[in-house]
Amino acid sequence: MALKIEKTFEVQEPIDKVWDVLSDPRKVATCVPGAQITEQVDEKTYKGAIKVKVGPSVTDYTGEVQIVRLDAQNHEIEILGKGQDVRGRGSASMKMTGRLRALPNGGTEVISVSEIGVVGILAQMGSRVITEVSNIMFGEFTKNFLARLHEPSDQPVEQAAGAEVTPIKATSVAWQATKGLFRKKPENVS
Amino acid sequence: MIHKTSPEIGGMGHSIKRKEDLRFIQGKGNYVDDVNLPGMVYGQLVRSPYAHARLKSVNTEKAKKLPGVLAVITGEDLAKANLAWMPTLSYDKQMVLATGKVLFQSQEVAFVVAEDRYTAADAAELVEVEYEELPVLVDPHKALDPDAPLLREDREQKNNHIFHWEVGDRQATEQVFQKAAVKASVHAFFPRCHPAPLETCGCVADFSRATGRLTVYMTSQAPHAHRTVFALVGGIPENNIRVISPDIGGGFGNKVPIYPGYVCAIVASLTLGVPVKWIETRSENLQSTGFARDYHMTAEIAADREGKMQALRVKTLADHGAFNAAAQPTKFPAGLFSICTGSYDYPTAFCEVDGVYTNKAPGGIAYLCSFRVTEAAYLIERAVDVLALDLKMDPAELRRKNFIPASKFPYKSSLGWTYDSGNYEAAMKVALDKIGYQQLRKEQEEKRKKGELMGIGISSFTEIVGAGPAHSFDILGIKMFDSCEIRIHPTGKAMARMGTKSQGQGHETTYAQIVAQELGIPAADVTIEEGDTDTAPYGLGTYASRSTPTSGAATAIAARKIRDKAKKIAAYLLECNEADLEWEPGKFYVKGTPSKSKTIQEIAFAAYTNIPPGLEAGLEAVDYYDPPNLTFPFGTYVCVVDIDKGTGEVKVRRFVAVDDCGNIINPMIVEGQIHGGLTEGLAIAFMQQIDYDESGNIQGGSFMDYLLPTAVETPHWETDKTCTPSPHHPFGAKGVGESPNVGSPAAFVNAVVDALSHLGVKHIDMPITPWKVWKVLQEKGVAA
């Protein structure tokens, strides 16, 4: 299942400060619910994990995150992440392009385009639910991202390798997603 | 005409209530999951999340350590017993549990056995499988590309092609097309659907180490054939295998194949020496068991300007999934698809089908009713409507002009079938009169002026059922006869057993009515039993509307054998010659002296108490019936729809179904079968599709995405009939179960296209969802 999700939001912070967070996968990972960076392989490659709980079963993806393109001049970053469930229940991939634009009011516009590929149990939940799940995850991400920006920039990345993270619970996510379906028409996903 | 017996006897033509419903409506049916044996344990399958992946390792250690887990079986374990693969019904083979690689999402990878269901399910989660993803082939059109991934590395043939099958005269057809004044064509995709029976598949395998006997309670539409396959594949002596199909909650072909779960449960019971139950979940059923259709079809009709059809050319790509596990007669890899000339008198025709592998669940023919007749009828009825549009002719008129005339039966079609009987124009007239066709056309004209969208769709289908004659029909070599054994007890009550197996069709009632008709024993006094291979005579089972044409015929013939013997006993009792006796349902009497008579009950008593010298005791008979030909039910369906220009929603305003299935056993049951089949057709036309994304993820794997019609969506069905008996069937019946499934999809689609045809719409692929219609309305600039 492939989904393309485009999101844009504004933050009241200068572009360089936002770029400082966005261009560091370790910092970005702390904003993604259920995700962590476990190891830096080289300058552009990291090992990471993300947990998603569906009912009694936890899908536990581990894999690599790679910075494909980093353009500090134009404030653009392209990240490719790929992971497999440790018990072989499926895989997921994400190509995310992030771009920053300085706003006349001194704030910054964050534009992200994510192409998500899911194979396995999660994919069977159908694109309507996956889209809603992604929307909710993105909402969480935005909240965490803003919080992160308000922290002093020299604060170390708090997640140590092997630390336990709380998995995002897709049961509650699915419930919110279901409510979402009734609230508005599902977005068209191709 | 069939002599109508008294209501007390309840022979053919009586709408007697279904005997089986007494227990069903009380919730006292006995389904496989109701079978609970002492010491029984439970199996759970581990399935692949990938559509195509190399299987690198299956680690069962953690699962085995969970308290309550008794065994975890993998493909490697089965390979040691030479059971990792099993034969399919189409001379292909299929993995029981994966070894080497997986070929479709939800494929069976391991089988966990535990003391209870919950532990089994938990343990299945603990089985760790390492996969390496491979390129996925989803689009059948790309299956034969040189760079397509090779799916079946086990085969000698190193491509994804399964079969090419053609019938008819290619050259003659080409020639007609070259000269034809008018050529109409349609590309129609019949999407992958699923039978989705109310009861999913499952079994209880019970091997007794004490007796060496294996009893399998299973959801089987063909228990005898399954017993033979178990014997051949498992090496167990066939006399030591007993297959019992208890009550079956719907089949529609879904319960014809042998699934890996059955085999795993049997292996587990053989290994552990205790009964093992395995029952699918709904999603497992939708994702891994026999699907239906998935035919990409093109039909072209050559005709003259007056609308006389001259030739038909059909080309089809068949998506069979990862294994060719379609259930069809051996000689017919595309089933009976060559019935695609339909109800029309084509001087020449040509039809070709290519089957290919893709990374999807296996299955195919016979599922969701009919050996590919549904596809054929849909295609020709769509194509005829396209020709009518091209010629600007009324679709009813075009059909009438090209019907095989009633005088031409038995009719040899240009693709090789001999249609037994038919009167297509008569059935269409009843349907058009009933719905008020001319009036509706006027209304449509008025509505179009006002910008309202209303359509009328006609489908004049011809079915082909009752497989089949031994000279052409077998499955895995076993000829497609079917059987009946009748025993008359001393008190005149009867017990009859068949090689078929009801899944809700009402056999316990209709077969009893056939016995009642032939012997005059009240249907209420006749018990019907099917599904136990220890007691029932051998037969190929129930699917493709074959029960009445085969076992129904066998029942009549067996009853007539009993009547012949009864006549001898009656002559002895009445002290006269057999030649002096006359029969009326329920008794023999002396010609001219009706008071001198013996009832069938008196005769039955004498068969055990006062046996004529030289005659064997008892009153019973068995018949294995080899039908001389198939039967060809037909009918005309007319559908009226209104389209909401704001939402794209299609409302079925009226639907008239006129069926001709020859002589009818129980009109109420026939009507019920038609209601059910039309509702199935409605769902296929408007709601259902098992789709896959580009990674091979199933997009219709639960009832959240694969929709079933409820009373809310279902319109009121208006039914009627004509009666053209089959000339070769013992009581002139033809079979009816599939007709509405075969005939209705085209009626619905034709109605929708008819509503939009003035805008230039010629075809819309099923399922016709409001979204699809809304897009068309937007494109044509008529959306409200």
Summarize the structure in words.
The complex is a heterodimer of chains A (190) and B (784). In chain A, 28% of the residues lie in helices and 42% in strands. Chain A has a single domain (2-154, 163-183), classed as 2-Layer Sandwich (Alpha-D-Glucose-1,6-Bisphosphate, Chain A, domain 4), CATH 3.30.530. In chain A, helix 2 crosses helix 3 (127-150) and helix 3 packs across helix 4. With 190 residues, chain A is an alpha+beta fold. The longest helix of chain A is centred in the last third of the chain and has 24 residues, at 127-150. The radius of gyration of chain A is 16 Å and the shape is globular. Chain A has four helices and eight strands, in the order βααββββββαβα. Chain B is α+β, with helices and mostly antiparallel strands and 784 residues long. Chain B has three domains: 21-29 and 482-625, Aldehyde Oxidoreductase, domain 4, CATH 3.30.365; 32-134 and 200-248 and 255-288, Aldehyde Oxidoreductase, domain 3, CATH 3.90.1170.50; 292-404 and 417-467 and 629-779, 2-Layer Sandwich (Aldehyde Oxidoreductase, domain 4). In chain B, a hairpin with a 2-residue loop joins strand 21 and strand 22 (478-479). In chain B, helix 9 (373-391) runs parallel beside helix 17 (739-756). The radius of gyration of chain B is 27 Å and the shape is globular. Chain A binds chain B through residues 1-2, 56-57, 84-91, 117-121, 123-124, 126-127, and chain B through 49-51, 105, 122, 125-131, 133, 283, 287, 693-699, 701-702, 704-705.
